[in-house]
């Protein structure tokens, strides 16, 4: 790769202008969304076209244990070939030297994509759209909390101290004063994002104590998933500079709203560039209705991917800014599927079920998969919901085990996401769930120890 620097994105070239590159982080996302890989000297990176990493990184649980993801030939732990996608090269501006990060794609020894690599799963789904002459467009929204340092897991998570010297306040949604409380952290987020070439559409205060939301400009699903993957790291690094943590847990603080990754979807006709959700006169199309119908039909099985941990299900609480069912409506934030106000060219469908704790590649892939199945199967949605959807019945899984059962039984979703991915994902998630069930909680000790 002697000419690799000539392929760098403009933002990476600008970051290195007049400087000597010291190190390149060669990374890939694992199932939880953690960056795995190797840091190598820039001179070595220039001499290599690929590097190896064991495929077992995709069998690792969030606790660092391993799901027994053995196939017919057993668990061999084969080497993968990781090749850089230079379009993803971006700065790591928080490091002490001049460092670039580069996302790599994972292949086996025969050159075939590793089917349970999250980025490859998303590419697979996008390719299904492409084969039909469609171009999917997404816009993710990232919610997260800035919290006080928590070095003892037995202690409850508390809001961070704001600039005023008081803990961050709850129920201050869209307050500019509340945003100012985190000014130094937000300044670093902006600076890091600019150095990495990312465009932020806006930052707002959400309803939780210390809860913020960052919106990204709509675009290509793979590019946006890359950005969310990068953003999680840069936000954490910005928080650490100011003696606090950034957390993307779905429900970090009891009695506060959870953190979601709402995903907006529209589909373009690749040949014409027009939104297939709108007809010639701006009317809603069959494709629009089928996409919603697919979400209502297949999201229950996909929730195991959109809500990947036991904590995720604590977010689906009535009247706490998270959906409890799969009803849909226009301009109604109580429903799980929302159609925002827009003109015909921008008509889109928002999935409000995904948690911010999901892997962005897998969350976007699963959401697009549900819509794709609806388009192919020509699913019809229910009637548009009128009123407060929190008053309606709950119809989504309430615990991880039930969600995994639905996922395991969904042949249609497995076909779109990939059979091998679905097998490995289920094994890893069941290993995590089983480990959780071995832990006795403080609630059990308080209420059961002497009373039952």
From TrEMBL:
Residues 118-452 form the GS catalytic domain. Its cofactor is Mg(2+). PROSITE patterns: GS_CATALYTIC. InterPro entries: Gln_synt_N_sf (IPR036651), Gln_synth/guanido_kin_cat_dom (IPR014746), Gln_synth_cat_dom (IPR008146). Signal peptide: none annotated. The keyword Ligase applies. Keywords: Ligase. It comes from the Bacteria. It holds the Pfam family Gln-synt_C. Belongs to the glutamine synthetase family. PANTHER family: GAMMA-GLUTAMYLPUTRESCINE SYNTHETASE, GS CATALYTIC DOMAIN-CONTAINING PROTEIN. This is Glutamine synthetase. It comes from Parasedimentitalea denitrificans. The lineage of its organism: Bacteria, Pseudomonadati, Pseudomonadota, Alphaproteobacteria, Rhodobacterales.
């Amino acid at each position: 790769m002697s000419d690799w620097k000539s392929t760098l994105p403009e933002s990476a070239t600008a970051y290195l202008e007049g400087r000597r590159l010291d190190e390149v982080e060669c990374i890939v996302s694992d199932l939880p969304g953690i960056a795995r890989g190797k840091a190598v000297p820039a001179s070595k990176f220039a001499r290599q076209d690929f590097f190896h990493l064991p495929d077992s990184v995709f069998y690792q649980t969030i606790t660092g244990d391993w799901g027994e993801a053995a196939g017919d030939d057993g668990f061999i732990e084969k080497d993968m070939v990781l090749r850089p996608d230079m379009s993803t090269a971006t700065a790591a501006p928080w490091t002490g030297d001049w460092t670039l990060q580069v996302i790599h794609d994972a292949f086996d020894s025969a050159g075939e994509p590793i089917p349970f690599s999250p980025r490859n799963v998303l590419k697979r789904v996008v390719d299904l759209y492409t084969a039909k002459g469609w171009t999917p467009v997404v816009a993710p929204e990232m919610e997260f909390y800035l919290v006080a340092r928590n070095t003892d897991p037995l202690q409850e998570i508390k809001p961070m101290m704001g600039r005023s010297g008081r803990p961050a306040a709850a129920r201050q949604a869209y307050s500019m004063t509340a945003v100012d409380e985190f000014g130094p952290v937000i300044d670093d987020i902006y600076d890091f994002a600019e150095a990495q070439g990312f465009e932020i559409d806006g930052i707002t205060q959400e309803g939780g104590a210390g809860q913020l939301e960052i919106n990204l400009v709509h675009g290509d699903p793979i590019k946006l998933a890359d950005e969310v993957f990068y953003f999680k790291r840069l936000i954490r690094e910005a928080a650490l500079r100011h003696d606090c943590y950034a957390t993307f847990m779905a429900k970090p603080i009891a009695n506060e709203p959870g953190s979601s990754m709402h995903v907006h979807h529209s589909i373009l006709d690749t040949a014409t560039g027009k939104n297939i959700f709108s007809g010639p006169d701006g009317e809603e199309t069959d494709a629009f209705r089928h996409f919603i119908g697919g979400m209502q039909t297949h999201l229950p099985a996909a929730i195991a991917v959109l809500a990947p941990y036991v904590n995720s299900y604590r977010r689906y609480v009535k009247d706490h800014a998270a959906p409890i069912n799969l009803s849909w409506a226009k301009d109604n934030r109580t429903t799980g599927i929302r159609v925002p106000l827009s003109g015909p060219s921008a008509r889109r469908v928002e999935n409000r079920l995904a948690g911010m704790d999901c892997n962005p590649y897998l969350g976007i892939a699963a959401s697009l998969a549900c819509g794709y199945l609806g388009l192919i199967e020509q699913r019809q949605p229910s009637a548009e919901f009128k009123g407060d959807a929190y008053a309606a019945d709950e119809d989504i899984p309430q615990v991880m085990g039930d969600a995994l059962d639905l996922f395991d039984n969904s042949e249609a979703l497995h076909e779109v996401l990939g059979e091998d991915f679905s097998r490995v994902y289920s094994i890893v998630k069941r290993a995590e769930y089983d480990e959780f069930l071995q832990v006795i909680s403080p609630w059990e000790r308080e209420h059961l120890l002497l009373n039952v």
